[in-house]
Structure formats: C-alpha cells, structure tokens
Amino acid sequence: xxxxxxxxxxxxxxxxxxxxxxxxxxxxxxxxxxxxxxxxxxxxxxxxxxxxxxxxxxxxxxxxxxxxxxxxxxxxxxxxxxxxxxxxxxxxxxxxxxxxxxxxxxxxxxxxxxxxxxxxxxxxxxxxxxxxxxxxxxxxxxxxxxxxxxxxxxxxxxxxxxxxxxxxxxxxxxxxxxxxxxxxxxxxxxxxxxxxxxxxxxxxxxxxxxxxxxxxxxxxxxxxxxxxxxxxxxxxxxxxxxxxxxxxxxxxxxxxxxxxxxxxxxxxxxxxxxx
Length: 275
Prior knowledge:
The protein is an all-alpha fold. It has 2 domains: 3-136 and 226-274, no CATH class; 156-219. The protein has helices spanning 3-63, 75-79, 84-113, 123-145, 159-214, 226-274. Helix 1 (3-63) packs antiparallel against helix 6 (226-274). It is flat, with a radius of gyration of 26 Å. The chain starts with a helix and ends with a helix. Residues 41-85 are annotated as: Disordered.
C-alpha cells in the first residue's frame, strides 16, 4: 500500500472520471452554455443597434449619405481565435481529462497519507471517506456560496475580485474540513464514533456559516433569465458530482482490490511459514 500504488490508481480513476465528466458536461451543460451565449450576443446586438442608428443619422445630416464600413483586423487576429465547435468538443475533453488526472492524483495521495489514521477503517473505506470530504469541502460548499455563472453574467472588471473570493472561500472550507476531521477522530474515543462525527460536522458547519456571512456576496446576475441561470448551475453541479463521484467509486474499488490482494498474499505467506 505505497503512495506510488495509490497514485497510479488515482490517475486511472481520474482518467475515467475525466471521460465521464466530458460526456455529462457536453450533454447536460453545453446546451445551456449555447443558450447563454445566444442571449449575450442578442444583448450586444441590441446595445449596438441604437449606436449604429445614431451614426447613420449623423452621416445623413452632415453629407446626405449613409456609408457602411467593414473593417478587417487581419488574418493574424482571426487565426488566434478558437472556434466554438473546438471549445465544446476537444477543448472540453482536454480540460476534463486534465482536471480529472490532477484531481485523481491528489485524492489518491491524500488517501495514501491517511491510511491507519482514520480509526479502524480499511484503506478502501478511508479512501471513500476522503473523496466524500473532498467533494463537500472543495466543491459543494464553495459552489453553494459562489455558484457557477454562464456567459453574459458578471462584469469583466470584477473577475479578479470574484476569483479571489472564491478561492479564499475554498481555502477556508478545506482547512476547516481538515480541522473538523481531526477533532472528530480525537473525540471518537471519548464520545464514540457517532458523537465524534456529529461534533466534527457541527464544528465544520458552524465555521462555514460564519465564513459565508463574512465573505462578500457577489450578485451580478442583472436581468439574466432565471430559468436559464438555474439550469446552467444545476448542470454545473451535476458535472462536479460526476467528477468526484467517479473518482471516488473507481479509486475505492481499485484500492479495495489492492488491499484484498495484499492481505491474501500475507495470509498465504503466514500459512506457509507456519507449516
């Protein structure tokens, strides 16, 4: 049960999770992204229409003619653009695989480091618990505070502040989860498993409620359609759950098989030594 063995299995789990996440994101999330992009483009066109009309009237008043100009900024600028078809296929697949591999490796290494430190849990059981805690602390709770937004939502001037708030909240959530887990394990001998788990979960919940009140609220939705926003955020949550769920299921299964195989080999050696 070495860290290398865990890492290899974590990368396998991350690869499978990346593929599964791509299919979920493509089938569930991309239609709502397309809807949001269409709304953004229609809004931009509506904003530009009065400006164009005012220019036309100004030209007519000045010279009696209205001219339409089309400017080309060169092929070099156009070549740097990535088509929407590439973004929603190869780009999405590449991103899903990269995140899956990185996340699977990190979860596997954390699970390897907690073997023997999670009470009487076997390696497969502790791996499943680590994945569940990671999903709650790293993905679910930060998502509830700062949910994903589709295109056309949010100002480009505040993207730096919004990113800092999100990752700051993620750090607080992860550190609080680690502390809550440590407290639960320490209290397990005194209060029992049930009491330790309840105490740890209550502590995490209390700290995150306070943090949620202290961190600034971001509300830049404007007049974006509520149903489109809801469907997009729901699809984003499905995508997150798919990534973490597949990693947890595959990695737990692989670690459990590894532990069973090593236990069986150890028993055979012990039996052979006793003969």
